[in-house]
Design goal:
The protein has 13 helices and nine strands. It is of the alpha+beta class. The chain folds into two domains: 93 residues, no CATH class; 239 residues, Transposase Inhibitor Protein From Tn5, Chain A, domain 1, CATH 3.90.350. The protein has a nine-stranded mixed beta sheet with strand order 3-2-1-4-5-9-8-7-6, sandwiched between helices. Helix 2 crosses helix 4, helix 5 packs parallel to helix 11 and helix 12 packs across helix 13. The longest helix has 18 residues. The relative contact order is 0.15.
Length: 336
């Protein structure tokens, strides 16, 4: 299955066709005494596979690949697999997969399925419990701004940077009052050029929490962060401006915070976007039982193998195309 996905075959029919055409090569690495399973067998297998046990196996496979000494940003965010629901079946629900991504290494450390984005609040503590985060900084969007989640992060000796929006009005109001009435203890500016735009990001760090009366109930809350982003697009001549607010236990190093906030969006750009555009996950029609959730892990395994191969300086799709045509290169991707 993994070999087929690496070679751009992701639907059951295509996977079977790949297996039949590459049976001689496959038998160098396994018996395959009974040939290739049918598409119905593959479908039944993935619908019957226990997703929780499969996630445990995935975590065990990932563990040796991770540099645990690297104290990096772990971004937690969710993605809905939209192709699994259908208008013809009102009871069908597209699973929402919550993923923890070690941003610098590009490793998916773990995942948990929910039935809706709103259920991320209950799923995040479960995901945090399943992965090692000690010494790292966990970033979460505004959905994860909950006292229990903050406590879970600090109890595992990790730092947190969590977005603040309007879903908790008193907190956002306190941040806005702080920004208006107090001076930041530090300010850092970062400039970046590339992809046809010039971007300036300014980070203001505030440690005076006197305007937030409930600060003591948020474990180790130490600062409010304001990030101002100004991006000039060369092609259109337009300038976009955006302001975001965060809460954190970190009380110094605005320049470091400016850099740590940015990798959170790597889970969107490096993972979710790739799963949709390169692997076409949202177009898949795996709707039986947990087959979509299980296959999501196979896609992440394939993506990791593609990313880890550095000798072929081409796009992910071109690497997969070469794997289809070049058996030696395919074996290299699979570490045979």
């Amino acid at each position: 299955m993994l070999s087929a996905v690496l070679c751009r075959c992701q639907e059951w029919d295509g996977i079977v066709l790949f297996g039949e055409q590459e049976l001689e090569w496959l038998r160098k690495h396994g018996a395959f005494d009974n040939g290739i399973p049918s598409k119905d067998t593959l479908r039944r297998f993935f619908a019957s596979l226990d997703p929780e046990r499969f996630r445990e196996c995935f975590a065990q496979w990932i563990a040796p690949l991770r540099n645990s000494k690297l104290n990096e940003v772990i971004a937690i965010d969710g993605k809905t697999i939209r192709g699994t629901s259908t208008k013809s079946d009102p009871k069908s629900v597209a699973p929402h997969i919550l993923t923890a991504l070690a941003s610098e290494q590009g490793l998916c450390l773990g995942q948990v399925k929910t039935d809706a984005k709103s259920n991320e609040i209950t799923a995040i503590p479960e995901l945090l419990e399943a992965i090692s985060i000690g010494g790292c900084t966990v970033t979460i969007d505004a959905m994860g701004r909950q006292k229990e989640i903050v406590r879970a992060i600090r109890d595992k000796n990790a730092d947190y940077i969590i977005a603040a929006k309007g879903n908790q009005g008193s907190l956002l109001e306190a941040i806005e009052d702080t920004v208006l009435l107090e001076r930041p203890v530090e300010t850092a500016i970062e400039d970046d050029c590339g992809h046809g735009r010039v971007e300036k990001r300014t980070c203001h760090l505030y440690t005076d929490l006197s305007h937030f009366k409930d600060s003591g109930s948020w474990k180790d809350l130490g600062s409010f962060i304001k990030i101002e982003k100004r991006a000039y697009h060369k092609a259109t001549g337009k300038t976009d401006q955006e302001t975001r607010y965060y809460i954190s236990n970190i009380t110094k190093d605005a320049a470091g915070l400016n850099k740590m906030v940015r990798p959170h969006w790597s889970v969107e750009n490096q993972l979710h976007w790739v799963l949709d555009v390169v692997f076409g996950e949202d177009y898949a029609r795996k709707r039986t039982g947990p087959s979509a959730e299980n296959f999501n892990l196979v896609l992440k395994m394939a993506l990791l193998l593609v990313n880890s191969e550095k000798s072929h300086k081409k796009s992910k799709n071109n690497k997969r195309l070469r794997a289809l045509m070049d058996r030696e290169y395919r074996g290299k991707l699979l570490h045979f």
